[in-house]
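User: I'm putting together a small comparison set for a docking exercise, and I want a reference complex before I start. The sequence is below, and the ligand is zinc ion. Could you produce the 3D structure with the ligand included, as structure tokens?
Assistant: Of course. I'll restate your input first, then give the structure tokens for the complex.
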Amino acid sequence: MKSARAPKLTPHEQTVLKLLSHAPKPLTAYAILSELHPAGFRSPPTVYRALESLLKKGLIHRIESLNAYTACNHAEDHNHISPFAICNACGTVEEINSAAIARAMKKIAGEFLAQLEKRVLEFSGICHNCAKKHRSA
Ligand SMILES: [Zn+2]
Ligand SMILES: [Zn+2]
């Protein structure tokens, strides 16, 4: 089972994953391309291929409402349903890391869908930090 935990990555995939792991916020494909231009990424298809493959391997998530990508923060389970909390003010995105929620979501999805293709659940609003700032302003 060890090999399933550490999927083999191409150098391009490693570079993209590293960038996303260190980014404070989710990045769009365009932002990734311009960040990685010095690293030899010259065309959008290069970025999209790496992103597609990382998505399939469960190492990153696509935040649909932002059209952006973020590294998964619990890469030990490549098959989870991930709720995200998105702050509309500062753009912070938190992956809600709850095995109980993931299990419940999987069960609910399984009752309606024979095959699950997208595992995305997004909540958006104002994060605690921004709410505090707003209150004290
Ligand atoms: Zn995740
Ligand atoms: Zn915020």
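Residues 2-136 form a domain with the Arc Repressor Mutant, subunit A fold (CATH 1.10.10.10). The chain has one domain: 2-136.
User: Thanks, that's exactly what I needed.
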